[in-house]
Amino acid sequence: MIRVLHIITRLDVGGSTENTVISVTRMPRPDFACSLISGCTADPPPGLAESLSRAGVPWNQVRHLLRPVSPVADGRALWALWRLLKEMQPDIVHTHSSKAGFLGRLAARAAGVPHIVHTPHGHIFEGYFSPVVTRAFIAMERVAARWTDRIITLSDGEARDHLERGIGRPGQFVTIPSGVDLDAVTSAPPVRLVAGGPVVGAVARLVPVKGLHYLIEAAPEILRRSPGARFLLVGDGEMRPDLEAQTRALGLADRIAFAGFREDIPSVLAGTDLVVLPSLNEGMGRVLVMAMALGKPIVATRVGGVAELLGDGEAGVLVPARDPAALAEAISALLQDSPRARALGEAGRRRASRYSAAAMLDALARLYREVMTDGRSG
Fold first, then answer.
1. Are residues 59 and 204 in the same domain?
2. What does the pLDDT average to over 102-113?
3. CA-CA-CA-CA torsion for 221, 240, 284, 277, nearest 10 degrees?
4. What is the CATH number of the domain that holds 144?
5. Which of 73, 260, 273, 289 has its CA 20 to 30 A from that of 342?
6. What's the predicted TM-score (pTM) here?
7. Could you tell me which residue, 69 or 63, shows the higher pLDDT?
């Protein structure tokens, strides 16, 4: 049995949490025994604790493991992680995200853990922090890569982004896309939250890096060309008041609906006519995988692993980030060209299976076994 301990900064709603929870709860037994450490979690997915308990996954929370940089808290988190690792003695430590990625790998190295794997879940090189903070994170990633057996990226492009910044060696990188439970997606009954249509849907955290303010800025032109269109924004976050204010300022409060956080995302997506993701940075875009599985036409920005996911335009229209005019043109064109929209949706449906949870778990199992046959990391 291979004992794998996963460490993630927080288990708030989002793609990295979904990926990690699938990884710890659904690895084949008795070949793998998974456990989990996380920092403070303010906005967990519904039923998180229950799903971990049902799967028999031990979950330790380190209260000083926080996303913001804090020398005092970070030092305490490092000490707590080291003590837990010495006690648990895993065969592999698998870290997730930036903060847990650095502190977790440092603690694992100090505790003598034989093997270390890291998944960045995209990267923080663009759209998150100031240039000074970003450079500091890159320097830390360069150091931590020396202690790491494998770095798992969600796309080949993400690996190239790391290598271009001097992080890691080519042989360390392996691409394993984030897995989605496609059966649950395709069997979900449609929920139509907005009357009329066509409905242009966006599902994302309402934070700056998701670029939703550019979609709202594009809305007047889309409505000029397709007056019946409606917009549905699903999710919550720090930008919601600003986005709602922007909507009111444009006089679009009756055309753009904010649905808040929803547990039934597959059903909500099934009830839309076109899916948009205008992110400034995106590791892969799990919501796009869901949209593909449902055969929805997609418009998304050419950032991170999105182009690779969509087959470089085979399964969706790609536009530059931070460009509301390009968003408006792409969305309007698809709303007025039903045959093309259907063709893109069908192409996405054909591609979706390579991003299933089963495919991810199989790839992870192979990777862990391969790492166990290698020499000690670092």
1. no
2. 97
3. -10
4. 3.40.50.2000
5. 260
6. 0.87
7. 63
pLDDT digits (tens, 9 = 90+) for 145-199: 999 999 999 999 899 999 999 999 999 999 999 999 999 999 999 999 999 889 9
Say how many C-beta atoms besides its own lie within 10 A of residue 290's C-beta: 26
Residues 217 and 332 in one domain: yes
pLDDT in tens, 22-43: 999 999 988 999 999 999 888 8
Are residue 365 and residue 331 in the same domain, yes or no? no
Other beta carbons less than 10 A from residue 245's beta carbon? 10
Same domain, 230 and 305: yes
Query: How far is it, in rounded angstroms, from Cα 360 to Cα 177?
Result: 7
Residues 6 or more apart whose Cβ sits within 8 Å of residue 61: 37, 38, 39, 40, 41
pLDDT at residue 376 tops 60? no
User: H-type helices in the chain, by residue range?
Assistant: 15-25, 48-54, 71-88, 98-110, 131-145, 156-164, 182-186, 212-225, 240-249, 265-270, 286-293, 306-309, 324-335, 338-351, 357-373
Smallest CA-to-CA distance from 177 within 202, 203, 204, 156 is with: 156
25 and 42: one domain? Answer: yes
| Model pLDDT, residue 375 | 56
Supply φ then ψ for residue 116, to 5 degrees: -130, 130
**Does any domain span residue 258?**
yes
Q: What is the largest CA-CA distance in the chain?
A: 63
134 plus 275 within the same structural domain? no
d(CA 48, CA 26): 14
Residue 165 domain-assigned? yes
Domain count, the chain: 2
Give yes or no: residues 349 and 325 share one domain. Answer: yes
Residue 197 is predicted with a pLDDT of: 82
Domain that holds residue 276: 183-354
Tally of CB atoms within 10 A around 70: 12
pLDDT of 128 = 59
